[in-house]
Structure formats: C-alpha cells, structure tokens
Amino acid sequence: LPDIYCILMYCVSRMAVDGGHRDGGCDWDGRWNHVRKFLERPGPFTHPDFEPSTEALSGFRLIHVVDMDTIDVSNLNRQFLFRPKDVGRPKAEVAADFINSRIPGCKVVPHFKKIQDFDDSFYRQFHIIVCGLDSIIARRWMNGMLISLLSYEDGVLDPSSIIPLIDGGTEGFKGNARVILPGMTACIDCTLELYPPQINFPMCTIASMPRLPEHCIEYARILQWPKEKPFGETSLDGDNPEHIQWVFERAQERAAEFSITGVTYRLTQATCATEVFKIATSAYIPLNNYLVFNDVDGLYSYTFEAERKENCSACSQVPQDLQFPPSAKLQEVLEYLTESASLQMKSPAITTTLEGKNKTLYLQSVKSIEERTRPNLCKTLKELGLSDGQELAVADITTPQTVLFKLNFTT
Ligand SMILES: [Zn+2]
After folding, report:
1. 275 & 402 share domain
2. Residues in the active site (predicted)?
3. Among 66, 259, 372, 397, which residue carries the largest CB count within 10 Å?
4. 314 C-alpha to ligand 1 centroid (Å)
C-alpha cells in the first residue's frame, strides 16, 4: 500500500543572501523577480524586524536531506522527484540528483541514513530544520536534539542557539504544519497529549471508518481472514507470500472503497515551504504556531497557538516529579513512564546512583541486561534501596537526552 507520509527531512544551511551574482553567474536576469516582490517592499503583515532590501535573500542554496528509505513503486504517485527507473534507490539520493540537475546554484547533499545516526555537531550547522517524519518517536527525537542545542546563561536563553523546526504531518485527509522555536514556543513534547498513544487501532475504526492504509490491512487481517478462511483453517502466516498477497489484495479493495489516499500531502508541503521562507527572510510573521487542515468533507483549516507546558519534560528545564509510595513496585514506575499521556516513553531504561555507584534498575534494549534487571520490576522502591528525593535518570528512544526525574515518596 502506498505510504502516505513523507519521510524526508530537509536541513537548510548557510543560505546565500546575495542578489544573484555569485556561484559563477548561474543566475540569469529576472530569476528572482517573483521573490523580490515579497522582499523589496513592506506590508501590513511583515515582521517587525523586516527591512525591505534588494540585498535580501534570494534562495535556498545548500540543503541537506536525510532519509533512510528506498523508493518503492507505490511511492511514485503524489510526487515529482522519483521515476520508475529509480525504484530501489535511496530516496534522499534520487531527490538530491533531481534537484541538483534541475536548479542551477542549489546544492542538495543526500544522506541515506536515519536522523538518529547524526549527533549534535551535525545538526548545529543548520539554520532551519524541516521535518516530514512518519513517526512521533522520530519527531520527539529531533525535538529533543534541538532542545539539547540550546544554551542558557544565568537561566536566560541565548537566542542565537535556537534552530527553528518546521514540522509537517499528514494522516489520511488531515494534515498539520507547525513552527517550533525550541525553548521559546511549544515544543513537540509540550503538546504530546494531542497525539493519541498508537498501540492498537480501535475496532470501530477498522470496521467502519478506516482512514489509513493500516486500518485496511487490519480489516483484512482481523475481520476478513477468519470469516472467509481463504486457506481453510490455517491461521495467517506472515512469512507465507500467498497469505500476504491475499491480505494485500483485500486491503487494496478496502482502501479503494474508502478512497484512502493522501490528498493533503501537497498542502502540508506547501505550508512548510512557506514557513521556511518566512523565517529565513523575516519578510512575514511566521505561523503562530499550529495549523491544522482537514479535507474529509469540504476543506477546513484552522490555526491556533499551542502553548508551552510549564513542566514539559523536554523543554522546560524543570525537574520532573515522580510521585509514588515506597511500597510501589518498579513495574508501576515503568508503566507510568510509558502510559502517562505527557511522557509516552517506549522502552525506558532507568538508572540511579546508590551509595555513590551508578546502578541500572531496568534496561530493555540489551537482552542480557534485561534478564539481569527484570527481577527488579517486582521489587518495591523501598526494597531497591531508593529514598525520598532520589534522582532517577531515564533514557528512551524518544529523546537523545537523558530525562531526570525526582522521586517523591507519597504516603
Ligand atoms: Zn516542551
């Protein structure tokens, strides 16, 4: 099934602010005329810092793109960068080749990698970061990365350490675009409650209101397979190509019936690109700060200001409180970290300091350590030797930084 998410991340770096006479004269007369109309005169919506100028920014000259996917046949619709001959090649490389050969003076550097493969020294070099990621975990990771780059002096944020993040996302016929100034405006984790925990799709969605390709697959797998018994009493085998083909075909029929495609994809992209232009040029006041749109029935769009959360675990610099009685088991703390709507961690690793030594209380990602620390889950906090006010350091794939919690014993 076609994936409906754009999984590209564009980083705009060291943008030239020339009037069009550099780069070996690759600019021609009139190349930037349309952009100049925005940059050379003020208007009622221009940013207070804006100074109309013929020297203004004329284009994005250096863009890095990070993407870990290769092109599938189903990716060929709704986009203009990939051709049938590119199937199997990395998306980042094909996108870069296409733009490099088509836009004189613009250099795109591809990275066929995960965003998590790069560290802070890589991300620090960019002026703006645009995300079209397909997962909340990846969004939170990038959000955490940009927050980790902020520098504070006596508790005051140094504005030059802020790298704006433009985030776009689509789901079925709905989309959103938001502008995040890390440390200043609401970050991804400030509004984490807006994202429902994604574990299982509600049965009513699967049975009667599918919106995503996944819902169609679940419909074929959970409802149609046991009813139609295409291979007799055999249960579905994920390694059997015939079984998968059957589920795939049924899911396709279901998707066609509910017209499931990603028509909002282009609108999300257009909105994100406009916001990058506004931030880079100061020509207009950026989106403040969250735009949603919905084309399920007609077209509806709405903008609101997502507010910062005072005690956000990602951007507030406020130590996070954990309230538990000494008789609570470590398992309960783990469940809180994963189930709390404002934390939604995935596989938290909990460490602390006991008698001056670092101690891992629980860690899932390494099998041998998981087995060794698993018995701790059934122990109470008291039995583990933890005391009131104890600091717990929690690492998770949702952030590149360790989150510090302070244990407050309740009675
Ligand atoms: Zn936040």
Report:
1. no
2. 204 (glycyl thioester intermediate)
3. 66
4. 5
For the stretch 290-334, pLDDT in tens is 998 887 777 888 899 999 999 999 999 888 999 999 999 999 999
**CA angle (170 as vertex; 86, 247 as ends), nearest 5:** 65
Give the burial class of 202: count Cβ atoms within 10 A of its Cβ; 0-12 exposed, 13-18 middle, 19 or more buried: exposed
| Same domain membership, residue 241 and residue 114 | no
The percent helix, strand, coil of the chain (3-state, each to 5) is 35, 20, 50
187 and 217 fall within a common domain: no
Q: Which of 204, 216, 272, 312 is catalytic?
A: 204
CA of 212 to the centre of ligand 1 (A): 28
How many domains are there within the chain? 3
CA angle 315, 317, 323 (to 5 degrees): 105
Q: Look at residue 308 in the predicted model and tell me its pLDDT.
A: 94
Which domain does 150 fall in, by range? 32-195+269-304
Instruction: Return the CATH number at 402.
Output: 3.10.290.20
Q: What confidence tens digit (pLDDT) does each residue in 328-372 have?
A: 999 999 999 998 988 999 999 999 999 889 999 999 988 899 999
Verify that 273 and 374 share a domain, yes or no.
no
Q: What is the pLDDT of residues 67-111, one digit of tens each?
A: 988 888 877 876 788 999 999 999 999 999 998 999 888 889 999
Say whether 131 is catalytic: no
**309 C-alpha to ligand 1 centroid (Å):** 6
Distance 186 CA to ligand 1 centre (A): 5
Same structural domain, 404 and 279: no
